[in-house]
């Protein structure tokens, strides 16, 4: 009887110790400080507060990490849009495209205006030439990450992915090469119109699966 009571007392102490340990870890996670680092041409990341980091975490999510992709020309015309894993579909694609292009326009202007290394900042809302001034590559929320690149000709490519997806600048360059191969060099394609090419879609789908 005495031995049984001792075993029961030991088990209760072990459970109490594990609960205290779990409680301390939870407090540490909630109270952990947020470190902010600023760097020109860095990656914009938002986690309630803000952090600018050139080194996003490596992909660790499972399944298809890519939600959707946009391609715009310099005038804001959406030349291409494709979804892979978008849980919430938009009811108005045209409005969705306008919002995305407007977001990019505003972020480009804002990041240039906030550049602490240049005296020639221009005015907010004034269009910038591709590659002019400070630029951004991506931003991150708790539910998605947006990666962006712009070519000298004004073509803008946007990938919206899982928030823990890593640096996609090389991936965006590869996708632009696909666009050049199947659109720019295609004698049947009219510049400024929607890109409809099954070879481009197939090549893009294959590459996007490798990002996941």
Automatic annotation (TrEMBL):
Keyword Endoplasmic reticulum found: yes
Example of a GO biological process term: endoplasmic reticulum to Golgi vesicle-mediated transport
Signal peptide region: none
GO CC terms of this entry: endoplasmic reticulum; Golgi apparatus; TRAPP complex
Alphabetic keyword roster: Endoplasmic reticulum, ER-Golgi transport, Golgi apparatus, Transport
Subcellular location, record wording: Endoplasmic reticulum; Golgi apparatus, cis-Golgi network
Pfam families with a match to the protein in the record: Sybindin
Subunit structure of this chain's protein: Part of the multisubunit transport protein particle (TRAPP) complex.
Similarity field: Belongs to the TRAPP small subunits family.
Name assigned to this protein: Trafficking protein particle complex subunit
Provenance organism: Cucurbita argyrosperma subsp. sororia
């Amino acid at each position: 009887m005495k031995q049984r009571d001792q075993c029961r007392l030991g088990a209760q102490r072990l459970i109490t110790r594990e609960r205290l340990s779990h409680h301390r870890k939870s407090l540490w996670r909630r109270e952990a400080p947020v470190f902010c680092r600023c760097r020109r041409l860095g990656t914009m990341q938002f986690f309630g507060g803000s952090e600018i980091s050139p080194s996003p975490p490596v992909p660790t999510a499972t399944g298809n990490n890519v939600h959707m992709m946009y391609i715009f020309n310099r005038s804001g015309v959406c030349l291409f849009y494709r979804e892979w894993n978008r849980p919430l579909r938009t009811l108005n694609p045209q409005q969705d495209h306008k919002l995305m292009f407007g977001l990019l326009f505003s972020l480009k202007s804002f990041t240039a205006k906030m550049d602490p290394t240049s005296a020639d900042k221009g005015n907010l809302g004034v269009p910038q030439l591709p590659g002019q001034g400070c630029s951004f590559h991506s931003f991150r929320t708790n539910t998605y990450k947006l990666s962006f690149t712009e070519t000298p000709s004004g073509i803008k490519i946007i990938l919206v992915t899982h928030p823990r997806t890593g640096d996609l600048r090389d991936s965006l360059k590869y996708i632009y090469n696909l666009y050049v191969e199947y659109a720019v060099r295609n004698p049947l394609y009219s510049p400024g119109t929607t890109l409809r090419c099954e070879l481009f879609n197939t090549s893009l789908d294959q590459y996007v699966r490798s990002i996941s």
